[in-house]
């Protein structure tokens, strides 16, 4: 019996390739997503990581989402043609997902496209019959996430969704800001979500990857156990399933 192939040996036999797109222009966020995902890439799969060279450094509302989509589409046409799937690593109902789907249809490409927002919400619904919430970047009321989740659930009155609670941390600050302050705000927001009954907490930005222990520990301080969903990690597994299920 021959020995199993190593990852390097498998690279020449790779049949599945994924492009992970961070649609904002912050390389620090792309790097964090890459570091989080790379240990979970199966043999026989390759992943490459991309962010546009221009456009907003962070995505906080529909306007910056649209601007980032336009920046991506200045560079992605042609580039995405060689991949089997694209994972859009922005926690929003990002316009790049339908834009790439339309691009693939027009070019007759067999290209699966998925957003980490959709992967995160779907996973939360599967992991609990109770309540879930989102720990979000920025400040104030995240109307875009509230509306997108209501659309996903098919209901504006579901009591399963306790809502997004913002951390008052910008996307860029997640990786480049004072990490003591980032941790403090992540822990405080976690406690707020737990007090609202959340049993599952979704990371509301790809740049939050690796911060799961803060959330679990903060919930434990409230006497609660929570599950943490990393939409980027779950999205990577889901897009592989979409590719191989077609």
UniProtKB/TrEMBL annotation:
A GO molecular-function annotation: amino-acid racemase activity
Query: One Pfam family this chain carries?
Result: Asp_Glu_race
**Which InterPro entries does the record cross-reference, listed alphabetically?**
Asp/Glu/hydantoin_racemase, Hydantoin_racemase-like, Iso_Racemase_Enz_sf
Q: Which PANTHER family match?
A: PROTEIN DCG1 (PTHR28047:SF5)
Q: Which family does it belong to?
A: Belongs to the HyuE racemase family.
Q: What is this protein called?
A: Hydantoin racemase
| Biological source species | Kwoniella pini CBS 10737
């Amino acid at each position: 019996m021959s020995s199993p192939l190593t990852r390097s040996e498998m690279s020449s036999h790779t049949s599945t390739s994924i492009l992970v797109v961070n649609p904002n222009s912050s390389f620090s966020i792309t790097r964090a997503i890459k570091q989080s995902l790379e240990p979970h890439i199966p043999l026989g799969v390759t992943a490459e990581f991309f962010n546009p060279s221009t456009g907003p450094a962070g995505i906080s509302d529909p306007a910056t989402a649209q601007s980032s989509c336009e920046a991506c589409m200045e560079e992605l046409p042609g580039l995405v043609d060689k991949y089997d799937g694209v994972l859009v690593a922005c926690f929003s109902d990002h316009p790049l997902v339908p834009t790439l789907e339309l691009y693939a249809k027009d070019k007759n490409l067999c290209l699966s496209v998925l957003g980490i927002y959709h992967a995160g919400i779907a996973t939360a619904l599967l992991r609990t019959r109770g309540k879930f919430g989102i720990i979000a970047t920025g400040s104030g009321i995240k109307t875009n996430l509230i509306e997108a989740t209501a659309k996903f659930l098919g209901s504006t009155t579901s009591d399963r969704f306790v809502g997004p609670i913002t951390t008052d941390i910008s996307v860029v600050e997640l990786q480049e800001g004072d990490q003591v302050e980032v941790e403090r705000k992540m822990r405080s927001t976690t406690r707020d979500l737990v007090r609202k009954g959340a049993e599952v907490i979704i990371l509301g930005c790809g740049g939050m990857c690796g911060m799961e222990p803060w959330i679990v520990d903060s919930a434990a301080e409230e006497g609660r156990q929570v599950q943490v969903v990393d939409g980027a990690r779950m999205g990577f597994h889901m897009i592989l399933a979409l590719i191989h299920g077609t």
